[in-house]
Design goal:
Layout: E1 2-3, E2 9-13, H1 19-34, H2 40-52, E3 58-64, E4 67-79, E5 84-94, H3 103-118, E6 121-126, H4 133-141
Parallel strand pairs: 5-6
Antiparallel strand pairs: 1-2, 2-3, 3-4, 4-5
């Protein structure tokens, strides 16, 4: 466990004792950030799987007076270009009463120091909603910088109306040339 100087926040890797808090935090985060109501019967085994399988990642928990007040999840990305890992920060949540009190900063520093100690971790990555300027400012204050990449996804469970429409055809090029994204 790591204590943050000048703070009552203590940070450590989460244990099975934190599963219920992590589930509650994930459900609260989804509702707050995306307006999604998650099914606890799906979230519980999803959280449990992280504890059961080391290859998926691990949770970091921030506590105040022994009670969980924030979390993040670290997952792994292998970079063959660099022969090392990037750790992805995901599932970031801090209870509303503890925001702007350094909880995320403490979680972030813990994860960064742990990554450095591993010896085979190149850096940390995360994604953030394009409209969440508060979070972007926090991340920038911790020396994280935007990359030149945008994120794309296919969500196989998403309803069809969520899918992005196909790009408009380029009328100056024949149809057969428009399917090749590499030019």
């Amino acid at each position: 466990m790591t204590s943050v100087p000048g703070s009552d926040i203590q940070v450590r890797r989460a244990s099975l004792l934190h599963v219920d808090a992590i589930i509650d935090f994930n459900i609260a985060m989804a509702e707050e950030t995306e307006g999604k109501l998650l099914d606890i019967e799906v979230v519980r085994p999803g959280v449990q799987e992280v504890f059961d399988r080391n290859d998926l990642g691990f949770y970091v928990i921030g506590e105040h007076s022994g009670r969980p007040v924030g979390q993040l999840l670290i997952t792994y990305e292998w970079s063959d270009w660099r022969n090392s890992f990037f750790w992805w920060i995901q599932s970031v949540y801090v209870k509303p009463d503890y925001r702007r009190q350094g909880v995320y900063k403490a979680l972030h520093f813990y994860a960064a120091e742990d990554a450095r100690r591993q010896g085979n971790v190149r850096g940390l990555r995360l994604y953030v909603d394009k409209d969440n300027t508060i979070a972007q400012g926090v991340y920038a204050g911790l020396r994280m910088r935007p990359t030149h990449y945008d994120m794309y996804e296919i969500d196989f469970d998403a309803p069809p109306e969520r899918n992005v429409p196909a790009p408009e055809p380029d009328l100056e090029r024949p149809d057969e040339e428009q399917d090749d994204p590499v030019e």
